[in-house]
Design goal:
By secondary structure, this protein is α/β, with parallel strands linked by helices. The chain contains 15 helices and 16 strands. The strands form four sheets. Strands 2-3-4-5-6-9-12-13 form an eight-stranded parallel β-barrel, surrounded by six helices. Helix 11 packs across helix 12. The chain is globular, with a radius of gyration of 21 Å. Bound molecules: beta-D-glucopyranose (BGC).
């Protein structure tokens, strides 16, 4: 018998998130091109290859796994390079396959959420200038039309862009994604064009399906300066203003404000979001490192209490979810979905703890009346992880994937997240079973989360 439960509101969405390049396999897009270039950006020059073989039909068994997990939603992305392999060619069979996937989710009781852009582009688009060319805005709007006309009767929940600022940084500032540029003004331009494309895509979807929900999945880091804050707060201000505030604020006001650049007014952008999507993973705690532009002048000093994390990942800090939800709520004032959250952990020693603290942190936000409506765990199964390729240090799955045999094995954290989803809550029984070291903290009157602050009422 449970003696305590953090219960979630009825109809709360529990699911996982995936994206095409992570799972489908046999890609021919900007990312597979980047892998083939072997620039050294990708771990051991690995290639995406077969990934998790979704395109060859393995989505069916993996959708059964989602159903086993008791999920009522799943977030996936459609691959532009499959749907429009050439500028003047639409591949109807690709659209048909996505229809089958969406029907497959519905048949299993899951509401789909479809992402239109998750870090990949057709190469023909890159050759036209990619996200620096004005024409790309129109191209994306037309692509949205194609997808919504083909799939709109099966999906009413859209994410136009996944982590636009992460994409802009990786592709145009730190040269980790194709086309591998290092120019802050190109990064700015990419962000601006994505905002313009989002505004157009929003109108397209809403004109056809006025009740559809449309938004963006925005990545936020938690960043905490150590004293003296006057110095250590400097890089943090920069990160907050460029990577966090600018894009969200533009969606609210229609104006993009970035350091060292004139304010850009983007027509039809203000208010183009029906929800706020939050991708939250890690914290950077620390200070000013003037000689380290690569890390945005941030020096990381993780808390001793935090579990060890892989290189360049930041601090695993699920208890920061509450504060980041609060940040996005104060800016956007629309229902919030945690569109991604998770941790790399091949051995599954940290993930159950991560899940318990993250779910508890989301529950706290709901109990301050912040309308959080769902959690998409990143991710269902181990898959291809961008520059980390198939590096074992970056395994995020509730299921482990054996990439030789394509066998999947559920992890303890998968069973744990299943119990949470089925119960629509986190109980002391579950915590005792999967993360006993947290029982005292979460269920015996000592929540002890230093960073919990009351949301300010705007
Ligand atoms: C991205 C995912 C990625 C995950 C873990 C997010 O930034 O949206 O595609 O796999 O982080 O790194």
């Amino acid at each position: 018998m449970a003696d305590g439960i953090y219960r979630f509101p009825e109809g709360f969405l529990w699911g996982t998130a995936t994206a095409a390049h992570h799972v489908e396999g046999n890609m021919n897009n900007s990312w597979s091109h980047w892998e083939a270039m072997e620039t050294g950006a990708v771990f051991k020059k690995q290639k995406n290859g077969r990934a998790c073989e979704w395109w060859d039909g393995r989505w069916v068994e993996d959708f059964d796994r989602m159903q086993y997990l008791g999920h009522n939603t799943h977030r996936l992305s459609v691959e532009w390079s499959r749907i429009q392999p050439e500028p003047d060619k639409i591949d109807e069979s690709a659209l048909q396959k996505y229809r089958e996937m969406l029907e497959g989710l519905q048949k299993r009781g899951m509401r789909p959420m479809v992402t239109l852009h998750h870090f990949t582009n057709p190469m023909w688009l890159e050759n036209e200038g990619g996200w620096l060319a004005n024409s790309t805005v129109d191209r994306f709007i037309k692509f949205t039309e194609m997808v919504v006309d083909a799939l709109g009767d099966l999906n009413d929940f859209w994410c136009t862009f996944n982590e636009p600022m992460v994409y802009a940084v990786q592709a145009y500032l730190v040269a980790m994604f194709y086309p591998g540029k290092r120019n802050p003004f190109k990064m700015y331009r990419c962000a601006e064009l994505m905002l313009r494309a989002h505004a157009g895509a929003y109108q397209v979807i809403k004109s056809r399906y006025p009740n559809a929900l449309v938004g963006v999945a925005k990545h936020l880091l938690k960043i905490d300066p150590l004293p003296p804050k006057i110095i250590n707060g400097l890089p943090i201000k920069l990160v907050e203003s460029v990577f966090h505030r600018a894009f969200l604020e533009a969606m609210v006001t229609g104006e993009l404000r970035l350091p060292l650049r004139k304010t850009v007014v983007i027509p039809n952008l203000a208010g183009t979001y029906d929800y706020a999507g939050l991708n939250f993973y890690q914290r950077y705690r620390g200070g000013f490192a003037p000689l380290s532009p690569k890390t945005f002048f941030l020096k990381q000093v993780p808390d001793d209490e935090s579990p060890p994390s892989p290189p360049m990942w930041g601090e695993i800090y699920p208890q920061g979810t509450f504060e980041r939800i609060n940040y996005i709520w104060n800016m956007m004032r629309k229902p919030i979905y945690i569109t991604e959250t998770g941790t790399p952990d091949e051995g599954d020693t940290v993930r159950p703890w991560y899940i318990a603290r993250m779910v508890h942190s989301v529950w706290q936000a709901i109990n301050f009346n912040v309308p959080v409506r769902g959690i998409y765990y990143w991710t269902l199964l181990d898959n291809f992880e961008w520059t980390a390729g198939y590096n074992p240090q970056f395994r995020f799955g509730l299921y482990a994937t054996n990439f030789e045999t394509q066998e999947r094995t559920i992890r303890q954290s998968g069973e744990f997240f299943r119990e949470i989803s089925l119960a629509n809550g986190l109980s002391s029984d579950m915590v005792r079973k999967y993360v006993p070291q947290l029982e005292e903290k979460l269920f015996h009157g000592s929540p002890g989360q230093k960073e919990v602050k009351l949301p300010s009422r705007a």
